[in-house]
Amino acid sequence: MNMDGEDRLRRTDAQLTAATARIGDAAVVHLRGTADLETRELLDNILQTAAEGVIAVIVDLDGLEFLSSTGLSLLMQLHNKLAADDRELRLVAHYRHLLRPFELTGLHDELNFDQSVDEALAVVARHHG
């Protein structure tokens, strides 16, 4: 843990890179690359590890070039797992290619989206502070 109260973890695969920081009681995961069937196991491991011992997981999707139905499924599974324990998943995404799959599947209305990681952290603080 560094002096700012952040733990940082970096994981990589040829097609997916994730940087995870723990900020207070939240885990922030920045994803880059592709979240698809080939990176499913790594992404699942990253998300499950991030969810350990926190009240919220914030996933910044803006670094992704592609998000498949496999990635959507993993995010929905994490949302359900966290919600069952009165914890939350918050997503940050601005680009059309990332938002469109959520809109087409109706998941955009079920999941929590924020404009920035800072905004998501503020919402978590209000909900759990």
From TrEMBL:
<dbReference type="Pfam" id="PF01740">
    <property type="entry name" value="STAS"/>
</dbReference>
<dbReference type="InterPro" id="IPR002645">
    <property type="entry name" value="STAS_dom"/>
</dbReference>
<comment type="similarity">
    <text>Belongs to the anti-sigma-factor antagonist family.</text>
</comment>
<dbReference type="GO" id="GO:0043856">
    <property type="term" value="F:anti-sigma factor antagonist activity"/>
</dbReference>
<dbReference type="InterPro" id="IPR003658">
    <property type="entry name" value="Anti-sigma_ant"/>
</dbReference>
<protein>
    <recommendedName>
        <fullName>Anti-sigma factor antagonist</fullName>
    </recommendedName>
</protein>
<feature type="domain" description="STAS">
    <location>
        <begin position="16"/>
        <end position="124"/>
    </location>
</feature>
<dbReference type="InterPro" id="IPR036513">
    <property type="entry name" value="STAS_dom_sf"/>
</dbReference>
